[in-house]
Write a structure and sequence with these properties.
Elements: H1 8-12, H2 19-43, E1 50-52, E2 58-60, H3 61-77, E3 82-85, E4 97-105, H4 107-112, E5 118-125, E6 128-136, E7 141-146, E8 150-155, E9 158-162, E10 174-177, H5 180-186, H6 192-198, E11 201-203, H7 207-216, E12 221-225, H8 229-241, E13 245-247, E14 259-263, H9 268-275
Parallel strand pairs: 3-4, 10-11, 10-12
Antiparallel strand pairs: 1-2, 4-5, 5-6, 6-7, 7-8, 8-9, 12-14, 13-14
Helix pairs in contact: 2-3, 7-8
């Protein structure tokens, strides 16, 4: 991404609705996340009923309970809206406005008692994502954004506006990734090892938290493969409103790709070129 294609003003250009409408959706999403957080906290580090899905990943009772709660509330408040979620079938997937739901991002962390998990919600209108919320109940933290409204974080210290870093040199950058093994095996990032070796520092802070750290300016990029739209929708809005850039490894701005690179924007093209080898 060049300097003309990232930043809050650029992100605001994707707004598809009034300030009042987007703020209404955001308030609704936060209310839903409050209820979802309670379900997740009550199940966390308890005996869980776990099922294996066809792709050999896992789903817990809390995942399905949260997604049912989200869908019920959306149907009551916005019956004309569609819903796409991880655990249940799509509803009105061709609607102009669609909610994209990940009931528990990082289910495997949740299962193992690792507090890095959260509910991710996003709203899309006419193909453009409008709001994003990432709520992490065990961390008592939440990140959220709406088009033209900036990106924000809320935790025990209060609420603050967040922004990506100004780091512009790879040798000064902290790079994050979900799974180094998956990134290498995918074949999508042949330059992964060389890129990581040339960065100032690298850490495997995976799942939603890696994107939150990029949005907060604590890291310069998050690299990941093997995701689904519900993994990426909320982080995309938050990173873009924080001033950063989000694409797949070949530079396409989308949430249905096999790879994902979220960055502070300044290093985006450099990172993409290096990943492609």
């Amino acid at each position: 991404m060049s300097g003309s294609t990232y930043g809050p003003d650029w992100s605001a250009g994707f707004r598809r609705g009034s300030e009042a409408e987007l703020r209404d959706w955001l308030a609704f999403a936060e209310g839903v996340c409050d209820a979802a957080d309670e379900i997740a906290r009550n199940a966390f580090r308890r005996d869980l009923v776990i099922e294996t899905k066809p792709d050999r990943s896992f789903v817990t009772e809390a995942d399905t309970a949260i997604e049912r709660l989200v869908r019920t509330r959306i149907a009551d408040a916005y019956p004309e809206h569609g819903v796409i979620g991880e655990e249940l079938d799509d509803e009105a997937a061709d609607a102009a406005v669609r909610w994209i739901v990940d009931p528990i991002d990082a289910t495997h962390n949740f299962m193992r008692g690792v507090p890095l998990f959260g509910t991710l919600l996003a709203v899309e209108r006419d193909g453009e994502l409008q709001i994003g919320v990432m709520s992490a109940p065990a961390m008592r933290a939440r990140w959220f954004a709406w088009r033209g409204g900036g990106a924000w974080a809320r935790d025990l210290d209060g609420e603050r506006r967040i922004a990506v870093s100004h780091v512009a040199r790879l040798e000064d950058a902290q790079l994050l990734y979900g799974s180094a093994t998956d990134d290498r095996r995918s074949g999508l990032m042949p330059g992964f090892d060389a890129l990581i070796a040339d960065a100032w520092r690298e850490r495997g802070f995976g799942d939603f938290w890696g994107y939150a750290l990029v949005a907060e300016g604590a890291a310069e990029a998050m690299l990941e493969v093997g995701m689904s739209p519900w993994d990426l929708a909320a982080p995309l809005v938050i990173i873009e409103e924080a001033g950063g850039g989000v694409t797949d490894v070949v530079g396409r701005r989308r949430i249905d790709a096999a790879s994902f690179v979220g960055s502070n924007g300044r290093l985006h093209e450099t990172i993409l070129a290096r990943l492609r080898g």
